[in-house]
Write a structure and sequence with these properties.
This protein is an alpha/beta fold. 50% of the residues lie in helices and 16% in strands. Among the domains are: 128 residues; 225 residues, Rossmann fold (3-Layer(aba) Sandwich), CATH 3.40.50. The strands form 5 sheets. The chain has a 6-stranded mixed beta sheet with strand order 12-13-14-9-15-16, with helices on both faces. A 4-stranded mixed beta sheet has the order 6-11-7-8. The protein has a two-stranded antiparallel sheet with strand order 1-2.
Length: 508
């Protein structure tokens, strides 16, 4: 039996990620790259900004993506979406025309394309290898709609009007400023005979004096008047066309329109990650839970950065992480410019993308569905503001701690850098203790190594260097105890005594 209600291809009730987190984690860049200049840009952006906490809804979205990972299914759905885009383009052209028969022509063309798109996809999906509840529900709805009296009448009427108009033949005679229109009376066409006659005079390549006619979609007043005269010559056909337009003015079914819009999200994301997959980077469908805080990821990476690196043919470094049992917070230390901030962004991006239902960077992952993602990344001081950097840090951290819950993810990157080591250690310990007491998941990038050994809830990770060459970074962040060099490197950098700066200064 056909479904009476439209299928929902984007199940779940989304919760928006805050603008600070989107900016800090470069999620806004990912959304902009995925949505691009697509017609459904706003819908894609809204969808990618909203996270889900319902693991079942997330898995349903994942299964739609998995169905579309089948190349045949993807191409057929993309063709359907492209045809629906043509329908919208013609309907927009209809709204922009003031000539009634020109408008009628656009409506008829749009309906013909629409009918073809619906019948094509309805004919393909029953035999397609799909298993996601949303796509199965859409298939049932589409099959029922394609067989409905309303659609079959639309398709039959559309074809009848196209056939009737296609049989019309007329002649236009132009004498100066006078234009006469008459029925075609088997007037002879001498074009071929003229070409044969002058073929004997052809002498190799010559300058082409032909003039190209404009092929703009619009209609000028002369063409519109000619069309009005043609309508007088064929009153039955054009009366039927006017009646058709009155009957089928709103021919696009609301359920089909909604499905087309929601499919744009899946197509856009898969098209975006396609080149990265082709470059050898892995994407996976993570296990998700709104209760289990044991998380992990293998071969993962910053999607926003990878997009730029892959476009330039540069390699992308991948990383792994894991929290088990009582472990809740990563404390990341190591040399500057070693990939710590990128690792922090990756951690946040994974949890956001997983909660949207997208395939995430990595060969395998198990992730938590948070109620909120809070971030605190270092920002430039505003000289117009009355508060200093430390005060701003404390104010922003205070907002996070008052708002976060045990189901939140908190990501802190290089805060308290404007204070002394003693104060940074004291404030960092207080902050880390508050996060652990809350039992939230977190990641804290810091130059204070002592924070990496704050208890069983804390996992120490370090950005690494090439063995024997402290100036060369691997950009790998690994699980290991802090080595006590992070603060030394921070001091050296502050005073211009790092290896790189000394090397440049001494010229050796």
């Amino acid at each position: 039996m056909a479904a009476d209600t439209p299928a929902v291809l984007l199940p779940g009730v989304p919760v928006a990620t805050g603008s600070d987190a989107q900016q800090d984690l470069n999620i806004d860049q990912i959304i902009a790259a995925v949505a691009g200049d697509r017609e459904e840009h706003d819908l894609i952006a809204r969808t990618m900004s909203g996270r889900l906490r319902d693991a079942g809804a997330v898995r349903d979205r994942q299964r739609v993506f998995q169905d579309l990972d089948d190349r045949s299914v993807f191409e057929e759905v993309r063709r359907f979406a492209a045809r629906m885009g043509e329908v919208r383009a013609r309907l927009r052209a209809l709204d922009g025309s003031s000539y009634r028969y020109h408008r009628a022509g656009w409506l008829l063309d749009a309906a013909a394309i629409y009918c073809d798109a619906v019948r094509s996809l309805a004919g393909y999906l029953p035999a397609a290898r799909i298993g996601s509840p949303p796509l199965l529900a859409f298939r049932e709805y589409l099959t029922g709609y394609a067989a409905s009296a309303g659609f079959t009448t639309l398709a039959a009427d559309t074809q009848a009007r196209k056939d009737a108009l296609g049989r019309i033949r007329y002649c236009v005679r132009i004498r100066g400023t006078r234009v006469d229109v008459a029925r075609y009376q088997d007037e002879a066409d001498y074009s071929a005979e003229i070409l044969r006659t002058f073929e004997r005079f052809k002498q190799g390549a010559v300058k082409d004096y032909r003039v190209s006619y404009r092929t703009e979609q619009g209609m000028n007043h002369v063409a519109a008047q000619i069309l009005e005269l043609v309508a007088r010559l064929f009153p039955a056909e054009f009366t039927a066309l006017r009646e058709y337009c009155d009957q089928h003015a709103a021919f696009v079914d609301d359920g089909i329109r909604r499905a087309d819009q929601e499919l744009q999200f899946y197509l856009a994301y898969l098209e975006h990650i396609g080149p990265l997959r082709a470059a050898g980077l892995r994407f996976c469908y993570p296990e998700v839970s709104a209760t289990d805080k044991a998380i992990s990821a293998t071969d993962t990476f910053d999607l926003a950065l990878a997009d730029k690196l892959a476009a330039g043919g540069k390699p992308v470094v991948t990383n792994d992480f894991q929290l088990n049992g009582p472990e809740r917070v990563f404390v990341v230390t190591g040399p500057n410019q070693g990939g710590k901030t990128t690792f922090a962004r990756t951690f946040g991006q994974l949890h956001h993308l997983a909660a949207v239902g997208c395939p995430v960077p990595g060969s395998a992952a198990r992730l938590f569905l948070p109620d909120q993602i809070f971030t605190h990344f270092e920002r430039q001081e505003d000289l117009a503001a009355l508060s200093g950097k430390l005060e701003d840090d404390l104010s922003r951290v205070g907002v996070i701690l008052r708002s976060a819950t045990p189901d939140s993810v908190v990501i802190l990157n290089e805060i308290f850098t404007s204070t002394t080591m003693h104060d940074a250690r004291f404030l960092g310990t207080k902050l880390l203790t508050a996060i652990m007491r809350l039992d939230a998941l977190g990641l804290y990038v810091t130059f204070v190594d002592e924070l990496a050994s704050s208890g069983e809830q804390v996992v120490s990770m370090m950005s690494t260097i090439v063995p024997g060459n402290p100036a060369e970074r691997t950009y790998r962040v690994v699980r290991k105890p802090a080595d006590g060099l992070a603060y030394a490197l921070a001091i050296a950098e502050r005073h211009g005594l790092t290896y790189e700066l000394l090397h440049d200064r001494l010229g050796s």
